[in-house]
Inverse folding.
């Protein structure tokens, strides 16, 4: 199932003789899911078919885990005045963490109402 992109995304793929760049905006859509080997992300443009673009990315779990580790290190190095999006990221990471440690049959009574709503939304 695709979702609307809540903000913007820019991508660039560089080859020795070519550069492909595209941006995706709120009118575009995305899909993300896990499979046996990793994380898949697809960004879809909503332009007419002759101008439609899409980007497909698949990251194996070891690489995705390393990316998350490096992001954590980068965030720790941010000066306090550049932390405007930390609450947004913290909520998303907390939801990911809760979904990784909670099985659908587990007792979720220790979660806050907000955490429970996030988790139940993910499990749908």
């Amino acid at each position: 199932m695709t979702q609307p992109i809540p903000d913007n995304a820019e991508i660039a793929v560089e080859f020795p003789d070519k550069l492909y760049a595209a941006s995706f905006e709120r009118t575009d859509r995305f899909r993300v899911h896990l499979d046996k080997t990793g994380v898949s992300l697809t960004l879809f443009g909503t332009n007419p078919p002759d101008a439609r673009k899409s980007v497909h990315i698949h990251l194996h779990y070891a690489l995705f885990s390393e990316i998350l580790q490096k992001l954590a290190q980068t965030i720790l190095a941010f000066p306090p005045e550049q932390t405007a999006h930390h609450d947004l990221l913290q909520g998303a990471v907390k939801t990911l963490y809760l979904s990784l440690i909670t099985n659908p049959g587990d007792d979720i009574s220790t979660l806050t109402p907000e955490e429970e709503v996030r988790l139940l939304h993910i499990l749908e």
